[in-house]
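Provenance and format

Records in this collection were gathered into a single text stream. Each protein contributes a sequence line and a token line. The two records reproduced below are adjacent in the stream.
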Amino acid sequence: MHNIFQKYYNYVIFFFLGLISMSSHGFDRVTGENFTSRSEVIAAHGMVASSHPLATQIGLEILKQGGSAVDAAIAVNAALGLMEPTGNGIGGDLFAIVWDAKTRKLYGLNASGPAPEKLSLEYFQNNNLSEYPEFGPLPVTVPGVVAGWSELHSKFGKLPIKHLFKPTIKYAKDGFPVTETIAYYFELNKQRFQDYPNFKEVWMANGDVPKTGEIFKNPALGRTLEILSEQ
């Protein structure tokens, strides 16, 4: 009996090690290199890539509804401002490179904003600042995202811009589950930003920053997008 169990035990260990060996490569395509990510994505009618699955889905829906690639990009960008606010938002800059297949022309857009008009050298000197601080309002330029959306849409858009904001407005009001990565950065920066006006009101409405899987809402952002879509 002992020998039978010993053989079975050896078999299980061998099988387990075999599974480790098969899964340790970390790729699903044969390239000869370990950990070279997933297989390439190939599509006939278009594709959307973003850092958040919900944002990507929004972009795909815009394409299915007859929107242009720029329409989809604007819709995705708006969604990321809600779903990944740690790296996106209407308070930032926008840069775009657009290839027009019909005219075979490449267009570039720099929608980075200028420094605030009244932020002078004297202000820094009077406040004993020898350089821009890393955080806070002082290092922030005038936001260029909204103007960038407008420029791109006026030249390459097909669907009404109001239509592009609809999905994000709905998620802003109804809520969406916070991903692990965003929850991590919320927690990482909580102590740094919680004393800034409006931060607690928006990001700590329930007393703490959102955790992984929690449903987060930002109705104020949804209303902002509604106002923009009416302009």
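Adjacent record:
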Amino acid sequence: MLERLDPAVAQCPQRLLDLGRAAVDRGAARATLTAITAAGGRAFTLRTELGRAGDAHALWSAFDEGVREFTDSPQVDVIVNNAGIALYASMSDVADASFDEVFAVNAKAPFFILQHGLDRLRDGGRVINISSGAARLATPMLVAYAMIKGALNALTRTLALELGPRDITVNSVEPGIVETDIAFFLSDPRMSELAASWSAFNRIGQPADIADVVAFLASPESRWITGQTIDATGGFLLGPAF
């Protein structure tokens, strides 16, 4: 699937160890570059702290500088908003500062990354926002996180309509429980077994399960899909089997 994207230029902001390799981990970043190069591609990494004032401007400035090593045209084909942090707390326990941090990373950063990036995004390009299946569930311990991911879905729908005349598709992907550092509770064997039982496939989602959905949405074959929120929960939202 990824071979079909060549020679696409993708910009994928990340924070922490979410659904990609950790940009904050230099070893993982180097390994990712090595893998891309070995596959015949070209890549460079950017480091920025999302959720801080001027984060989107700093990110795109670094992109403009880095991409000039490969081309005189600092344009991009695909933008994947993959940055995210979680907040596990009931409504009564959510502190102002915690809410503001999650909103800044999960909603404000994607908004302004896209605001600054749309002039660089080629016609016929792709925008893919990584949301969460939590946005469709009533989960008291994820109330703030789910609400903010719902805001990202609203951005997806609005931009899909706005960018349609440029043949740019905009979609969200909603993962369920995925085996990454953000799902720290999976280190408990009992929680891992329970989480697996919530999937129709009776297993925990893997980063590759989500990456393949993203790769499809980034490909030419997804040209007629826009403004959609793709359920990539492994059947988590289907409900229990009786």
